[in-house]
């Protein structure tokens, strides 16, 4: 391995996310280029915790990881401990008493339908100027999502890999 590389060790258990799927790879690449030092990051739909763990290893001050599957949260907890970043990651089910402050960065690797529905909440959870990355989107679904997110976000761009898309942008002030 590259001596400068950050390695994430994980066992996905019953949760989604090994890091090899194109949508996960697109999000990991985006996180790697993001300025995360001491930032608050939300990983919505955390699955195995791979994105939350990567954010913590890349210097995020705090990571809020959310998933609707309790088994995913358990896998995320175990994987965060395995990677020595458990103290930086807080795990929540949707609707639990997650912190209400706005985050600097939000990443969500889930399906296009939920991404469409969650757009207003994601806009509310990000600070003005906050960075957003969405994936789990098939080619052909991205135009509608870009249109949806344009109400709150600027600089929306699509990056494609195989049949999958990542959309990223910035929260409008």
Question: Which structural category do the helix and sheet elements fall into?
Answer: alpha/beta
* Mean pLDDT value: 91
Radius of gyration: 15 Å
> SSE order, as H and E?
HEHEHEEHEHEE
Task: Describe this protein's structure.
Helix 4 runs parallel beside helix 5. With 173 residues, the protein is α/β, with parallel strands linked by helices. The relative contact order is 0.17. Helix content is 32%, strand content 29%. The chain has a seven-stranded mixed β-sheet, sandwiched between helices.
Task: Walk me through the topology.
Elements: H1 22-33, E1 40-44, H2 50-57, E2 62-66, H3 70-82, E3 89-92, E4 103-109, H4 112-125, E5 126-138, H5 142-149, E6 153-161, E7 164-171
Parallel strand pairs: 1-2, 1-4, 2-3, 4-5
Antiparallel strand pairs: 5-7, 6-7
Helix pairs in contact: 1-2, 4-5
Please provide a brief summary of the model.
This protein has 173 residues and is of the alpha/beta class. The protein has five helices and seven strands; from the N terminus they run H-E-H-E-H-E-E-H-E-H-E-E.
């Amino acid at each position: 391995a590259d001596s400068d590389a950050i390695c994430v060790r994980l066992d996905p258990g019953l949760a989604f996310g090994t890091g090899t799927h194109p949508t996960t790879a697109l999000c990991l690449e985006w996180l790697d280029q993001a300025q995360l030092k001491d930032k608050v990051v939300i990983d919505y739909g955390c699955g195995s915790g791979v994105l939350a763990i990567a954010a913590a290893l890349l210097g995020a001050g705090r990571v809020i990881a959310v998933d609707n599957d309790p088994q995913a949260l358990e896998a995320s907890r175990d994987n965060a401990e395995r990677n020595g970043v458990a103290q930086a990651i807080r795990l929540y089910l949707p609707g639990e008493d997650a912190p209400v402050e706005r985050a600097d960065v939000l990443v969500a690797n889930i399906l296009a339908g939920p991404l469409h529905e969650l757009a207003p909440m994601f806009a509310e959870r990000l600070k003005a100027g906050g960075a957003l990355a969405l994936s789990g989107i098939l080619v052909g679904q991205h135009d509608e999502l870009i249109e949806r997110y344009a109400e709150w976000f600027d600089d929306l761009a699509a990056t494609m890999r195989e049949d999958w898309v990542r959309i990223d942008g910035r929260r409008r002030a």
